[in-house]
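Project standup — Tuesday

K.O.: blocked on the structure for the chain from last sprint. Re-posting the sequence here as requested.
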Amino acid sequence: MRIALACLIVALVVGVVPKAFAFGYIAPEAIEAGVAECAEKNLKMFSCARGIEQKELSARSKVVSRSGYTLLIRLEKKVVSLVDYPTESGDSAIWYSYLGYSRKLNSHIIHVQYYEGDSYMVIHHHSGQQVFPSGFPLASPDGKHFLSISNDMFAGYRPNNVEIWQVGLSDFHRIANYEPEWGPHDGGWESANHALVKKQCYAAAETNPTGLKPCGVAQVKHSGSTWMLIE
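H.V.: unblocked you, prediction finished:
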């Protein structure tokens, strides 16, 4: 315990991101690996999501497929059809991109792109329940919860929050939602009951989102029957 804490403190002091933090642009780095559209020089949210989808369509052709605007996902008991809606005006446009399947969560993960902003959809493979966490769902080591984070301190197109979701045999329930004054940037699990979230802050007079800077690490811990955000 003392060694792990000491390593974390050293990492924060020297500016090194702990191993638990593994976020890429749309999804964790492991998922974006090898996808040219997710490279730093090509940081376009929709293009990155569709690049990941292309990789997944090839790897999971028996489960997921696309025909034009229609994304088909074969669940345990039914097929889910998600249809893109690229309107001429753009205001109500929506695009769905398949990001992969989580064995721990027994669920499919979808990126949802709007004309302004985006979100995520998680579909339970057994029941078909659909939920919309604020960010990419990161499964806890025991698969009983997932963490999602969203950072938007400027534009207001997305929530600025940290969520904990409980995972059942066939359903999900959001059991904690925190809306801090800082921006949740990266996150990861240290254990089944303990997650870390990297923080970003900017001065009160700052109006440019590029002015955000690292400002420490928050903890999300399970204690008794509740989850706590320790800032």
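K.O.: great, moving the ticket to review. Confidence is low (pLDDT under 50) at residues 1-20. The chain is about 15% helix and 40% strand.
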